[in-house]
Design goal:
The chain is mainly β. It is built from 1 helix and 7 strands.
Amino acid sequence: MRVVLAASLALAPALLPAQTPTPAPRDVDYPGILSLDVDLTDLEQRVIRTQMLIPATPGPMVLLYPRWLPGNHAPTGPIESLAGLVLHARDARGERRRVDWRRHPLNTHAFELTLPEGTTT
């Protein structure tokens, strides 16, 4: 059993397609203002709904869910509590278009998406 398991673990990287690593987070001033709306009306069910507006430009983008939280000594960001992620791109006229995303195959805290032409938020 140990030999089979060790062999399958050794072969696993060869079976995965080559992946680009998640870009490292950068500590730079953000060129805009983020807006956050939080709905706490369903605390009995422990559901918190949020809407965040992020100024953005067209093209690829990676959103990172926090892995390391202040005051913790381990990567304990509760990604398993995230549900119902829906992304929209808004253009200069305020029209919204749904944006498809995919979870990065190696970093479960990273979401990859491509914003369409005309996106401002």
